[in-house]
Amino acid sequence: MGHDNEARMQFAAELAKRAGDLGMEYFRRLDTLTIESKGHQDLVSEADRDVETFIRSALAEKYPDDAVVGEEHAPTPGTSGYSWVLDPIDGTANFVRGIPAWCVVIAGFRDGQTDVGVIHEPSTGESFYGRRGGGAYLNGKPIRATGATSLTEGSLGTGFSNRAEANNVVGLIADLLGQGGVYFRNASGALMLAYVAAGRLLGYVEEHMNAWDCLAGMLLIEEAGGKVAPHPAEVLTKGTPVIVAGQGVYDKVEALAQAAFRS
Length: 263
Prior knowledge:
Blueprint: H1 5-29, H2 38-62, E1 67-70, E2 82-90, H3 92-96, E3 103-110, E4 113-121, E5 126-131, E6 136-138, E7 141-142, E8 155-159, H4 163-178, E9 182-184, H5 189-197, E10 203-209, H6 211-223, E11 227-228, H7 235-238, E12 240-245, H8 250-261
Parallel strand pairs: 1-2, 8-9, 8-10
Antiparallel strand pairs: 2-3, 3-4, 4-5, 5-6, 6-7, 10-12, 11-12
């Protein structure tokens, strides 16, 4: 289509790594703070803001006409029809407690669909990235969603962001366990989506995710041969329910999610 999403993907992947390096500087500083002080929370807030500002300024320099939507700052309008959607640190609950499972998330969005997706996890040095029509990769190697056909063949990622959703997830987990399955949660939705794309998890379900947490991962899963529930047209402003899985278990995962989220 001549959109040159290869160049955009390469730029976003490099940018996410640099942003991750900045995040790591803060992450290492956690050790120097008094345990259980407000200092930890202040540090992660500062890291969040600074990492997003860093990404935004790099995007503004390279692609000045593009819009930017992020978690920490007000959206920047654009004229090109291309939007960058970013979460500077997904998994702040992990970050603030010194758990090495948080990531930088950058997605490129145009014409109502995700064009580029990058999820970089600085603690492990793992970069998951891809572009529409170009496959999905982890540090240069192609990745594939699971070929499993049964929920007993692996773990299903689960997430929730508020009490109501948490209560619904309890039912889903009970149902999953009843079918011989296992659930997985690491408190970073974006990272769990990357794990689905890489075939490490059977799938992932969450009743509601914001665009900056899920668009990159959903694209990677599609490009890795997995299946993704379609998102609403207003995903950028409203977010979306997320149901994703390998092709062979998607129907089973979807049935679990629909039963649990029906309310």
